User: What shape does this take?
Amino acid sequence: MIARHGLNARRSLGQHFLLDANLTARIARAAGALEGRHIVEVGPGPGGLTRALLATAAADVTVVEIDERAVAAMQELQAEAGTRLHVVAGDAMALDLAGLAPAPRQAVANLPYNLASPLLVSWLRQAALWERLTLMFQLEVAERICAAPASPAYGRLAVLAQWCCAADLRLRIPPAAFVPPPKVWSAVVVLTPRAAQPEAALFATMERLTAAAFGQRRKMLRGALRGLGGEALLARAGIAPERRAETLAVAEFDRLARLL
Assistant: This one.
């Protein structure tokens, strides 16, 4: 299929294809029981993971692909899979991904490296609409998503992700598993949305808050948050102004965001 469609991986699209059927099956299993679920996959490429998802009891799989070569490959696979595979040609960042599939819906994807973080944040904004997100990132990004407070990797992504979801780094994958191999390891993170989700305005406030708090990591919070209320805001939240952002638990960020 790769040869027929000239589907050589393009760096400009962040493409690294995972074709090992054992690994793609493990990723599909990491998503949990998929019976009756509607799956959205972003960036299927030649369809290695797509095939593994179709082999589950999922109700159907909707793939979103911007590369016209991969769209043609997915349409070829669609001829085999029938109505269980839907192909959407377009930019995932410009689409309402939740609107592409009915509930109960899940996202399972080997994300293009260059879009992984912004795509994750867009999913988190609508976390209430998703049953689960099983996503592959560069290992460094996966570790940032799952990082604990006071660890070197803890930052904006950790706060946003763990505020909205329970995050579990499930599977580490070496570069040699991909075609072409990237320079770094990858990892699969399973994100399970929490029962209570923030309203859109509160999420936007948390984005502003974490951007300011982690914008200059070595600054004390009294300085980092000066534009958002500084010491007065911290006093209302019961947080010492000399603390730094990486020492705050997600619950403390939640308190600050709600005060704002």
